[in-house]
Request: fold
Amino acid sequence: MNESTSLGFRVINPGMLTLIQDLGRFGCHSIGLTIGGPLDSSAFKWANKLCANADNTSCLEITFGGLELEVQLDTTFCVTGAKLPLTINGQTKPQWQSLSVYKGDIVKLGFVSEGMHAYLAVAGGFNIKPTFNSVSTVVREGVGGFDGGKILQGQVLPYTTSNTAHHNKLNKPPTYDTAVSLRVILGYQHEAFSQVQKGIFFSGKYSVSQSCDRMGYRLNGPKTKPSIDGILSEGICLGAIQVPADGQPIVLMNDRQTIGGYPKIGSVLSIDLAKLAQCGPGATVTFEEISIEQAHNILHIEMALIELNPVEPIELLLN
Amino acid sequence: MKIELAGENSLIIYFGDSASPEVSAQVQQASMLLQDALADVLIDVVPSYASLLVIYDAFLTDNFHVQATIKRTLSNNSTADVTTGKVVTLPVYYSSESGADLERLAELANLSVDEVIEIHQKTEYRVYAIGFAPGFAYLGEVDARIAAPRLTTPRLKVPRGAVAIADKQTAVYPAESPGGWNIIGSCPVRMFDLMATPTMPVVVGDTVKFKAITRDEFIALGGKL
Reply:
């Protein structure tokens, strides 16, 4: 291999869980493969946009922080998502802004103080061979990234050196709350939930349990009970809310199983899943019913906001 | 046929309340017709026992258009031929050393071990659904005499290739994973191989037959104990 494909970031410390992700693996549900992809697709897209990358360019998803990298090739990178201390060679640097680094620099991400997942994009993305048209890592399936696993100490994350002279920043980055309201489209077995049970669900306050990962978020709160125990296993879409026999809802995320047999009241709007994903155990969750028409409108407005909200070019006085 | 909303970009079509080869064939046929009719806007489909989840690109279309297309496309297809897929024969080494639950299952069913093996091979199984894990094919239906409930406490590790029964379903584990199914043997054929084309030897709608092989044949085919 030549230099441009075998060098990149050398991992000094991988943090607790760092994964390669692109927007996800689509069209493979019929063989049981889930989609993977970034839990906070908004922060992911901003990371790429700030590095002038295409939307689907591979990034690192860093959960809890704690990542430390040695730069082997000059490049431009940026970190978005969860708030954490970011330094280059010990000097504090801003998130939500593209930054230049040079051979030998040490990039260090501390631990998150707001939100759960940060995204690190590098100009041009990482050079990794896709599996089923995606590099997204799904550890449970052993697919994507490097041999289907999380980033390890000593690994090199290869990229092609870039001479980007332009730097961009986002002026008003989002903040991450520990109390979120999730908009829900009623669907699937919602008719098996009586008006009273729906009332309990939509007026209840839930908290994120210790069981929350890329597959699903289990919530604790008022019990809701459908009039049926189980169903014939069927396809599960992103954001589906399963209600098992204990009456405690589970919101299914990017690494969800493709089919399952628990009753479902409906699904959470995708852009609200990002807010949920930035919550850790103990965060407060409430649900709000919206119509499918409202859902489509909200999605289009959200896309327009990302498309139209310009990143601001800045001159590189900063390293 | 009943269409329900599933999420912001997905609809689920129900073809019946229970699993049967007829309903499964309808799911298969609808899956093929809709992949064609919705080609421009489709993200994925998930066929299962009696339903088909349709996931579309909400930036290119909306649920009204997709519902209308589904109704139009499927309105003339209330019945479907039951034999749609290919027939795949999978070799199995049935034994106590490769099937930890074989003897217990025989005892539970009040049958001899040989009878259990005989009955498991006699049925032709339909691939009803693929999911749970990559390459995990739900096969049905197992002869009522050897149907068995899941283990009370699931095993933390079921080896790859394990041939197992849960209620009236049987399956071959595509990879080592936790699982509560009753293991009766082992199949040396890989059910999911990222490097192979196709990745899986079966698709939903195919028919699977099991054929007993000896320990030596199992080893020769690459099986591991």
Summary: Helices of chain A lie at 3-6, 41-50, 195-203, 270-277, 292-308. Chain A has a mean pLDDT of 93.
